[in-house]
Amino acid sequence: MSTQILEREKSEVASSRTREPRRDEGTNCPDPASKSLAGCMGYPQSAAVIEIKDLRVVYRGKGTGQPDRTAVNGLSLSVQPGEVFGFLGPNGAGKTTTMNVLLGFVNATSGEARLFGTDVREPIARQRIGYLPELTYYYRFLSAEELLRFYARIFRIPRPETERRIDEVLKLVELEHARRRLIRTYSKGMQQRVGLAQALINNPDLLIFDEPTSGLDPVGRMKVREIIQRLKNEGKTVFFSSHELGEVETVCDRVAILHQGELKVEGRIADLVRQHQLNLEQIFLKVIGYV
């Protein structure tokens, strides 16, 4: 995540922390830095964690004669609390664009997108998110500890809580032994795991991962898969894109397959396999017209 985006998010999180509560909000909400906000700040307890309705994103042509490009076309789906949801599709299907709408990086052309019942255009909607981009760009002259303290400051997590959270997330991603080493000395797998650690530092209710196992060897992919399973066991909601369909089939409760910006298939993996009489990879290839 770029420095500019981090500074913008820091400002938005700070402003959302200090806004006046709405009339329908409770006054006894837990500390956002350490506990779930479900049921507080206007988030209905039963609300879907992610709710997308008729989402459309069109990128305007940049030059004379350049046509507009529709990246997402009428997408509707929802993700429930505690689910691990696989967001699938070939390159250019609209997965990253959809994630960028949820994260506030891209504005929708039309339609709605909500997080915990709150419109994604409101900064508070992203207060309980952890995000891991496909390509991680961290300050390589920092150690893992220093990087995590930097992110904790963005979320304004108190110092005692910060140190406790750093210990917890480094243990979860199995980087305790390398916590003081500079990130530039890390392998690709270790860099991906420190990325997972930063996504978890604010103890989010929702994790959004864009290709979390990209470029990892089999051991690295296994470790990421184990971490996702642990997060699910903790009641977290995980929404991630991946081309590793075997891993998706192992860890996901439900999946959605996009092609050319449109939702083609959605449902529980077991139901889809039974309906199509094919495994997930075969369903994917059939949907995108490869077979």
Main attributes of the structure:
291 residues; alpha/beta; Rossmann fold; six-stranded mixed β-sheet; four-stranded antiparallel β-sheet; 10 strands
Strands, count = 10
Main sheet: strand order: 6-7-8-3-9-10
> How big is the Rg?
19 Å
Helix/strand order, N-terminal first: HEEEHEEEHHHEHEHEEHH
Reported by name, the CATH topology of the domain at 3-16 and 48-128 and 205-287 is Rossmann fold
Shape: globular
Percent of residues in β-strands: 15-25%
Distance between the termini: 37 Å
- Please identify the top-level CATH class of the domain at 3-16 and 48-128 and 205-287: Alpha Beta
- Largest sheet features: 6 strands, mixed
Helix content: 25-40%
Number of separate helices:
9
Can you tell me the residue ranges where pLDDT is under 50 for at least 5 consecutive residues?
1-7, 9-44
CATH superfamily grouping of the domain at 3-16 and 48-128 and 205-287 = P-loop containing nucleotide triphosphate hydrolases
Structural class, please?
A: alpha/beta
Report on the structure:
With 291 residues, the chain is of the alpha/beta class. It has a domain of 178 residues: Rossmann fold, CATH 3.40.50. Helix content is 35%, strand content 21%. The protein contains nine helices and ten strands. The chain has a six-stranded mixed sheet, sandwiched between helices. A hairpin with a 2-residue loop joins strand 9 and strand 10. Helix 3 crosses helix 4 and helix 4 packs across helix 5. The longest helix has 16 residues. The chain is globular, with a radius of gyration of 19 Å. The protein starts with a helix and ends with a helix. The N terminus is likely disordered.
